[in-house]
Amino acid sequence: MTDLRRTFAATDDLIVAPGRLLLGHGPQSDMAVLLRDGRFAEIGERAALRARHPAARLAEMPGHLMMPGFIDTHTHLTQSLGKSLVFGEPSEIFRRIWVPLEGSLDEHMVYLSSKLAALECLRGGFTTAVDAGTRSAGHIGKLVQASREAGLRLVVAQICNDLGGAAQVPGRAEILCRAEAHLAAYQGDPLIHASLAISIPEVASDAMLRDISQMAAGAGVTFQTHVNEHLVAVERSLVANGRRPLEHLAHVGALGPQTLIAHSTLVTPSELNLLRDTGTAVAYNPVASVWKGNAVAPALQMQALGIRFGLGTDGTRADGFRLMDAAETMQRVGYGLASGDSSCGGGWLWLDAATRMAADASGLSAVTGRIAEGLAADFLLVDLDRPELTPSHDLSWELVRYGNRDQIDAVFTNGRLRMVQGWPVDWDARALMAEIRELAAPAIAAAPIQRIHPTADSLIATRHA
């Protein structure tokens, strides 16, 4: 294989000529891309592009697919230290595990957790992640630092709860002041994009829900919240407000094109119409539905109605290929089998939902999500010389069903090589992991976590005692 570090080390103009290039109209042969100043400067037929730019260096990658990086529309970078603690747990694990854990982390542990999560994202082909906001006590700067050092493009939310659900719950004036400062802090940043969030509608007053959503709209950023994920939350909202959570957001004026709803698994036909009519976007999190949810979002129906959505992990596992596979599989099991829909959107839909559609849902359609002239050069080089992709008859669908993160040879953000075969090129991931192994157990032990189930390891040991 070409020495990727040497090939992509320089910062001058570079023409990348892959075996296949994934564009909006599918995988194309004999095409090339000119990289300049971290962007896709020009795309064209390989020989013609080479003739127009004879001074540019040429990177021949005949056995590779060059494709947009995946975009995770919903994750939690500061939860990576406790990933498997939620296995087998009943709904609303945030109350018993995530809020206590995140709230107990000091600055350094927030940094370590975030960098570990960023490492996992990049290894899985995610060049962009949308973080729903840390519940730690004012350590968002460490989250940003970790993501920036790893080279992950990040949409990072400032949580604006005024009724609980975070380590700190300041007064209204302080919340609005922090939100304004957060929006100002990352204007023009090449990798970090600001967002505002309220964890779930019931931890904010109606006025705060409306004001934060409108502040996000005015700033041109996303407003994030978790909605209609668990049955118990839907029922609490009905008792408290006489409306389901999504209906309540519409009632207070918090829906709109700026709003990114995580989950929306428990949605009625009228709520789907609310999403469509307001232009609200949804993070479809299929693995989260399998592991810890009450239902599966009706993504195919959302597509048919024109509702904007992208794929998200919800911090489950960071593998973009397996996420696409789960997205198709859950639609097939949840809806397709009963209706005789054998394609469930086809491979092209889920590939699009993990890239272009995810960028739109995340508010980044003008930045990333496609290999298109002028956009940031966030892309993957995927090894096509694999048994799973041989012979190839339908590469788009094969990527969804056969792709895996070990097929990713290189990951780039802003035209800069970040990873080669799963490991960073400019920082020591193994040293990070060694430090986390040393510090994670005491941090977990100090957090007031409440688990319902014992670990599988402890059950096995008990049964064989």
From TrEMBL:
Family annotation (Pfam families): Amidohydro_1 (PF01979), HUTI_composite_bact (PF22039)
Record bears the keyword Zinc: yes
UniProt keyword list: Hydrolase, Metal-binding, Zinc
The Aminodeoxyfutalosine deaminase/Imidazolonepropionase-like composite domain, residue ranges: 32-56
An example Gene Ontology molecular-function term: hydrolase activity, acting on carbon-nitrogen (but not peptide) bonds
Limits of the Amidohydrolase-related domain: 66-417
SUPFAM superfamilies documented for this protein: Composite domain of metallo-dependent hydrolases, Metallo-dependent hydrolases
Gene3D superfamilies with a match to the protein in the record: Metal-dependent hydrolases, Urease, subunit C, domain 1
Signal peptide: none
PANTHER family: AMIDOHYDROLASE-RELATED DOMAIN-CONTAINING PROTEIN, AMINOHYDROLASE SSNA-RELATED
Family per similarity comment: Belongs to the metallo-dependent hydrolases superfamily. ATZ/TRZ family.
Name under which the protein is recorded: Amidohydrolase
Organism: Paracoccus denitrificans (strain Pd 1222)
